[in-house]
Amino acid sequence: MALSEMQAEAGCLRSSGRELPAEVFVDPVSRLVVFHVSGPAERALPLAPSASKVVGTELHVKGVGAGKATGWVKQLNGKMLPLSLLKVDYSSSVPRAGTPLTDANGAVIAIAHQTTGAHSGYALPVDVVKRVLEDVQGAGRVSRGWIGLKLLPQSTVPEVTNVQEGSPSATAGVKSGDVLLEVGSRRLADYADAVNAFYYLRPGVATPVRVKRGAQELSISVTPVEKK
Known about the structure:
Elements: E1 7-9, E2 12-15, E3 18-26, E4 33-37, E5 58-61, E6 65-76, E7 79-90, E8 100-102, E9 108-117, E10 120-125, H1 126-139, E11 145-146, E12 149-151, E13 160-163, H2 168-172, E14 179-183, E15 186-187, H3 191-199, E16 207-213, E17 216-222, E18 225-226
Antiparallel strand pairs: 1-2, 2-3, 3-4, 5-6, 6-7, 7-10, 8-9, 9-10, 11-18, 12-13, 14-15, 14-16, 16-17
């Protein structure tokens, strides 16, 4: 996450002539960088609960103007993304990567991620920020959750094609042929939705998984393990 008017170098951040010792954590999937700064705490921007309902709303960008969330991006150039990005159209220039985008209450709802045009770009939803912060604050490192399911990208629905033997999903009772309806709080309509939901899995944290098996809908609790 870029910090306004700060420079990072050799394990510290420099701001207005001050040097602050800092640890650096990188999420290789989202490419989000988190700095854990030692020393006196400064005022932090609050984080919104989630960006799940942000599409269609106005976003605010300090020093740049306003923007509007116009939709979710699940793939680029035919390649499936490891997590869904937010598409944002800006009223003026696109902010630099790492700039916080806030909602009407001043809470961070997304982080500018990539420019796609003179007035448009992609952003990481605040859910990604919170997911990485949970790891950093809880375990001091970034980890990925794994439940041992395989799905076909070409399928029109998120249908399980294989459950790895001995995996958390096998232990919980998920079966090949099950169609995933929900993973955690996220509803799934296709393969990309499943990939996005798997990003938010946390090792050791039981996750409710709702599946359709034949004519039945079943709720199963699956506890991910750390992905090696």
